[in-house]
Amino acid sequence: MDVEYDIIVLGTGLKECILSGLMSVSGKKVLHMDRNNYYGGDSASITPLNDLFGMFKMGDPPAYLEKFRDWNVDLIPKFLMANGALVKLLLFTGVTRYLEFKSVEGSYVYKGGKIHKVPCNEKEALASSLMGMFEKRRFRKFLIWAQNIDENNRATWEGIDIHKDTVKAAYEKFGVDQNTTDFTGHAICLYLNDGYMSSPAIEAIRRIKLYSESLASSPYLYPMYGLGELPQGFARLSAVYGGTYMLNKPDAEIVFDETGAVAGVQSEGQVAKCKAVICDPNYATDRVRKVGSVIRAICILRHPIPDTGDKLSAQIIIPQNQVNRKNDIYVCAVSYAHNVASKPNFIAMVSTIVETANPREELRPGLNLLGPIDQIFYKESDLLEPTDSGEKSKVYISKSYDATTHFETTCRDVLDVYERLMGEKFDFSKVQDKIVNAEDD
Fold first, then answer.
1. Which of 365, 383, 401 is the last residue of a domain?
2. 220-223 sheet: strands from edge to edge
């Protein structure tokens, strides 16, 4: 391989495919390689159903599940926040032309052994079964305050310094109780644990606004035919702008020069030269550290999740305090309506950060919400993150996918890798301008 590339991307997970697309749009010469012969990596959708059973060494699927090729099972299911960063990327890059979405029908939070719809505006707050009469009014006032904040107008802050005072101080100002802070922090702001309480209030305010702005019947979207469509969409974007793809390269290995900086990637006895490498943690195991583990259960159901009003898709967040844990438990479900299962089947996922020596049992509060489970597949995965920024080696590594059932943390990691490599924050409008100009040409 005599061609020198600006960037070689290793792995076709969603993060790597987004970055490949963004780099190609930015005018970089990109080569994208993967050890597998399919797109998606850890974030792939597995089809047909036989392959999923084979992956987990469970023999052949039972005949009653039928039409095995109708199944597209996500290994790491997540939903898209309707006004979140990933949807903006899809819109601004034009990748939406390759995809079709359905709205997720319900967003719920677990409290006191039951699930409740997450209130997202003052009207729903007053009608919610999550709170008593007086607490509803306190939460309504807090929600109106957060939604009316103008970061450039201190008069709207009502005595809270949103850049210095903590989220906890804001809660205390409005007198909201522990249950309210649980569902606000975890089901609306989507924080992973209660560490956010000591952070400046501004970030939580922005997250509340995002949730409200994303709302239709639910603030989440899901692509038809599964999440495997997303990396393929960004791969097409990269190809349109000159990116080259090579799958089925099991021996792909990063090569360094005498200074310790990346020189290229070797495969099948040849070295493709490059100035930088973007990769998932599995391609640079000596440059990452384990920071925890995620346990996931993929479940096949023949019914919707109970107490969701027969919704064909739903998300449930179980805040840590409700089940005496340090981390939340996440539940999501999609169905035949999304072309990911044969009718009348549903696919549900329960996931959390591992805290004990018995990870499967940690999922029990979420599994108990599902009703009868026909098939269950457990998978424990290491949470890996890079040990350095990549500034010296020019190897820019993403983090493993966390336990959440939304893409907000995924996008934050993508934008962090972009900033480390490019030396500047990602600007949505610049990418959109480049695409518009290219189409005009």
1. 383
2. 80-81, 220-223, 101-103
Report whether the peptide linkage leading into residue 344 is cis, meaning its omega lies within 30 degrees of zero: yes
| Chain position carrying tokens 């035949």 | 336
Domain shared by 285 and 408, yes or no: yes
39 falls within a domain: yes
> Does a structural domain hold residue 89?
yes
- The whole-chain average pLDDT of the chain stands at 90
The residue with tokens 């989440």 is 220
Are both 371 and 409 inside the same structural domain? no
Q: What is d(CA 246, CA 35) in angstroms, rounded to the nearest whole number? A: 9
- Write 48-54 long-range contacts (CB < 8 A, 24+): 49/73, 52/298, 52/377
Q: How do 288-301 and 101-103 pair as beta strands?
A: unpaired
143 falls in which pLDDT band (50, 70, 90)?
Answer: confident
In terms of domains, do 379 and 390 share one?
Answer: no
Dist. CA 242–CA 236, nearest whole Å = 10
Q: What is the pTM of this model?
A: 0.84
What's the rounded mean pLDDT across residues 158-187?
A: 91
**Bond prior to 61 in cis (omega within 30° of 0):** no
Q: What type of residue sits at position 240? A: V
Residue-wise pLDDT tens digits, 297-352:
999 999 999 999 999 999 999 999 899 999 999 999 999 999 999 999 999 999 99
Cα–Cα distance measured from residue 58 to residue 377, given in angstroms and rounded to the nearest whole number: 9
Say what the pLDDT of residue 317 is.
Answer: 92
222 falls within a domain: no
Check if the beta carbon of residue 303 is closer than 8 Å to that of residue 372: yes
Q: CB of 101 within 8 A of CB of 224?
A: yes
Radius of gyration from C-alpha coordinates of the chain: 22
Whether 218 has a pLDDT exceeding 90, the answer reads no
The position carrying tokens 């850890």 is: 42
State the Cα–Cα distance between residues 38 and 47, nearest whole angstrom: 11
Domain termination site, one of 383, 402, 430:
383
Q: Are residues 96 and 156 in the same domain?
A: no
Using alpha carbons only, give the angle 34, 347, 60 rounded to the nearest 5 degrees: 70
